[in-house]
Design goal:
The complex is a heterodimer of chains A (171) and B (124).
Chain A: H1 2-25, H2 41-51, H3 54-72, H4 78-98, H5 105-127, H6 137-170
Helix pairs in contact in A: 1-2, 1-3, 2-3, 2-4, 2-6, 3-4, 4-5, 5-6
Chain B: H1 3-29, E1 33-39, E2 42-48, E3 56-61, E4 66-71, E5 76-81, H2 87-91, E6 100-103, E7 108-114
Antiparallel strand pairs in B: 1-2, 1-7, 3-4, 4-5, 6-7
The chains are: A mainly alpha (171), B alpha+beta (124).
């Protein structure tokens, strides 16, 4: 039982790393917002959270951040990605657990994307010691609406199928 | 997609747009402008523009000549000059960043500068 779970989690982590690399090849067709990205790897966090639970989502997110940092070579970005991943998972779990009858996964994922941005900007403002960077937040929030919507949509389809497989596989 | 999702999306759009508007407003207001008066290439005086109506006259007497500069809330101009061509007086008032007005014979120049933001750019 436990081995199967480990295998599933590691597969999901690998998918997350692959998405992370893939996403760095895709340019966003929006000029004027540097630093904005699709956040495809957030699909993995979302799906892990809905299928396996909060603890495993944190583990997968942290592992993915470390591995993706080593693979893509952006070592200085580890604080940004790690803080964003952990904070967004916490917020998504709170929204998913207590407000899941009100918000669908799309809403959960939008919450996650916005909290991801907030965490990253907080870390950035601490690191460069300038809080003026928070003026960037509204632009990031507009972008996170679109990315959050599509990540949530993907998460709905993926987690529906994964939940069916999990029940057969783990019993 | 539930009703609450749509409400969230509308709320976020509203919040982001008002945030963009507010930051525009804030950066416009904190964009403090200064008039820098230079004599012979060296900074002689730096005066902050405060958007008030009061004006002040600054007289500059050097070995090159005599100039009177008027600084008010919006900008600055040469009011008088004892130079021959009077180009600096004809230049009129300068109000925008990086505009300059120079009295070449008397080696006096005034220009408008703004306090630069501390960040040039941010990369993730």
């Amino acid at each position: 039982m436990k081995t199967k779970r480990i295998i599933y989690l590691s597969l999901i982590t690998v998918i997350g790393i692959a998405l992370n690399i893939l996403e760095s090849f895709i340019p966003l067709p929006v000029s004027g917002i540097p630093g904005a990205k699709l956040g495809l790897a957030n699909i993995v966090n979302l799906v892990t959270m809905t299928v396996f639970g909060f603890k495993h989502a944190i583990i997968v997110g942290t592992l993915r951040c470390f591995m993706a940092t080593l693979v893509t070579g952006a070592v200085t970005g580890i604080f940004y990605s790690l803080s964003g991943s952990i904070f967004s998972t916490i917020i998504m779990w709170i929204v998913y657990k207590y407000f899941s009858e009100k918000f669908s996964l799309i809403g959960v994922s939008i919450f996650g994307a916005i909290s991801h941005n907030i965490a990253q900007l907080t870390v950035a403002s601490i690191m460069i010691n300038n809080f003026l960077i928070f003026t960037y937040l509204p632009f990031m929030m507009l972008m996170s609406l679109f990315t959050g919507y599509f990540v949530g949509l993907t998460g709905i389809y993926t987690s529906n199928h994964l939940k069916k497989i999990e029940i057969n596989a783990l019993e | 997609m539930t009703k609450w999702d749509k409400a969230l999306i509308i709320f976020v759009i509203f919040f982001a747009l008002s945030g963009i508007y507010w930051t525009k407003l804030m950066t416009f207001n904190t964009d403090q402008l200064y008039v820098v008066i230079e004599v012979d290439g060296k900074e002689y005086k730096k005066i902050a523009l405060d958007h008030s109506n009061s004006s002040r006259k600054i007289e500059i007497d050097t070995i090159y000549g005599h100039n009177v500069i008027e600084v008010d809330g919006e900008g600055a101009r040469f009011l008088e000059s004892n130079c021959k061509d009077q180009l600096c007086v004809k230049m009129g008032k300068i109000t925008k960043v990086n505009q300059t007005s120079i009295c070449l014979p008397n080696r006096v120049s005034i220009k408008i500068v703004s306090k630069k933001s501390e960040l040039d750019g941010v990369s993730y």
